[in-house]
Design goal:
By secondary structure, the protein is α/β, with parallel strands linked by helices. It has 2 domains: 141 residues, Glycogen Phosphorylase B (Rossmann fold), CATH 3.40.50; 164 residues, Rossmann fold (3-Layer(aba) Sandwich). 36% of the residues lie in helices and 14% in strands. It has 14 helices and 11 strands. Helix 11 links the parallel strand 9 and strand 10. Helix 1 runs parallel beside helix 11, helix 3 crosses helix 4 and helix 8 packs across helix 14.
Length: 347
Amino acid sequence: MRPGLENARRVLLIRRKALGDCLVTLPAVQRLAEALPAARLDLVVDRPFAALIQRFLPTCRVISWSRDGGGWGWYRNLHQEGYDLVIDWLGNPRTALWTAATGASLRVGYDLPRRRWAYNLKVPRNRWRGTALRGFAGEAFLDPLRSLGLEVAPWRPLGRLPGFQPGDLGPDYLQWRAGNLEGASPPVAMMMSATWPAKAWPARHVVDLWRLLEDSAQRALFIPGPGDEDLVRELRKTLPAQAFAPDTSLLELADILARCRVFVGTDCGPRHLATALGLPSVTVFGPTDAVGWNPADPRHVSLSNPVHCLGCDHKICPREGRPCLEGLTGATVHAGLQRVLAATEEG
């Protein structure tokens, strides 16, 4: 451990932006909490995720941030909190400024242009040629802890969610759960959310996969996510009503996933939530990097169509026909799912 680190009493952790990034960082936050049991840890996340993250980390103070709360009062509060240590896991110009504003004696962040000035302990970024990740992001999020001299075991998900509080789950959801999940065999969770159009898996492949699961007597549950309205309308033309879960909050989604057998879907935030809860997963990858965003574990299979532009990081595909995901069939994903189920049973 870095000399003097054991005396840290106030720690600020910055993990803004996407839900998936936030969830993949949680094991590093938990490890830091274990290393500094006498410190108070404040974790800044975007407002929509705060309630969920607080459930995962009940011993931390989760700070909900939104753009309308980022004025000068925010910077004044950061300075007045008297932080001893700051770790900036996002590393954009805004969060670098936050880090500097704290005046903390130890400020950890990535060694990047226009950011590095804010940190006095700089960490190499887990990047190769600008976009591809050299290794799994969860392992890379442990690098700031390693730079502090902490011993860290290989990344593994938290695999648990402490009990819900009254009001976390709505009455409509609880009524649906009683009739569809309680007392039934755990289903295969299917989530095809795609905040990037280039990530979307075609509806016809989703239908093919659902039918293959039905033919093999494996119950599947399609769980709608943000931006799935067009996909749901298309799927409802073919799939029965009982194939669909209702719209849910993040906490309700976590409750559903905790009752499922395995997750199948796109590279989306809910997929990382399933992993955080300990679910095995099968993920279809197109424009995003499977090496960087899929754990190296036989319980987590990544599938892709091996085209030369795979992992391009484009939000909208520039190629006609979108070959990376159009060419990845339901049968291929079904076969990957059977591998995951076999690995789970062996484990």
